[in-house]
Write a structure and sequence with these properties.
32% of the residues are buried. The protein has 19 helices and twelve strands. The protein is of the alpha/beta class. A hairpin with a 6-residue loop joins strand 9 and strand 10 (264-266).
Amino acid sequence: MALCLIVEDDPREGNQLRLTLGSEGHEAMIADDGQSAMAMATQFKPELVLLDLGLPDVQGMSLIPEILKLSPLTRIIVLSGADCVRTVVAALRAGARHYLLKPWDRDELLLIVDREARAVNLAETTTRDGASFCFWGAYPSMVALKAYLERLASSPLTPVLIQGETGSGKEVLARELHRLTRPGGAFVAVNCAAIPSELLESELFGHERGAFTGADSRRRGVVELARDGTLFLDEVAELPPNLQSKLLRFLETRSFKRLGDEQELNVACRIVAATHQDLSMRQADGRFRQDLYYRLAVVCLTIPPLRLRRADLLSLAHLIVTQIANAIGKAPKPLSPRAEEIITNYEWPGNIRELKNRLERAMVLSANQQIQPEDLDLADTSSSGPTMDQDSDGPEQILNNLREYGWNISKAARKMGVPRHWLRYRISKLAIERPAGLRRN
């Protein structure tokens, strides 16, 4: 059961939440304004926070990063009467896990609370007593990466660039470096490709009230939130040119200005950048500053793709199954010998993210005592039939199959002997464009 902090200025609403949580064995305490909420969060480090955005003394939204800075493992569930897409996006971007509209549904609320409480317990178990975030295995490149991280931990401000294919675990590696460094601040992550360019500067450096339309209050950026900690910049290759120059200046001087402010602020934190792009090509065509590259890549780490780590695949798969089982409250299911064979021989174009996706699907949907090949929805690449080698199916062959079946991806995938999600991945990777007028399927 979880320790929950209810932040709600309506006494009736707060008591109803406390009784609802208590009925399932959760311990709940109530704060009726932002100041008391922060005091309780500091003292008790709750596992869950149920947060109302309409507080009398502060904007509830501003509490989300503050609470997470105090306790990074805390899960925040926003409860609000505001049915506004902009507000929902802002809350989730700030770090909330869920956004529920009032009046909330009791069963839905308890389901979310139960799931998030298990996730916190799993995260605490994973990191307790100095346990690693990472599965290292025996592949030489991974063993070398572990040694590099242990050395880097003694230099908490040295910038690091992590390269690797999509889904290979770049953020996991960054979190492990943060854990080993044991800084006084938080780990703060931002995906540079997921935020519109016109909002990205405010996301990074913050803004003052009135800096632009809609800026009705001061907002601290992720650089400021990462003070004395780690700032993880995912997809750093997508930074627009004007922000590349501002990030370079911050790396060189440790100072920056919020949008709309003349005062310079100083922040010390480690910058860990990550990309799956080839930055040397981006430098060559002028899309990425060479001087910024050299400042970010003081130490450059490369994560090998999962297909090169076949000897470690089954150990990693069994670990992931156990983690998924704990998260969803089920007993872990063993992998059948045939499933193990398919996992070992599959190419895993989506790397660890795809492996987790397929194993979670199997754990949730399988009606068998063991996880079988059909539960994974992967092609059998151990036979002499078609394989999912990156080079085996070029754009012409894929395009011919798509044309033959009128761009019906399901039928084309069956003809090629591959799963549909893999064919979609190859279409995207090879930039194959669908003819105008054809429906998606």
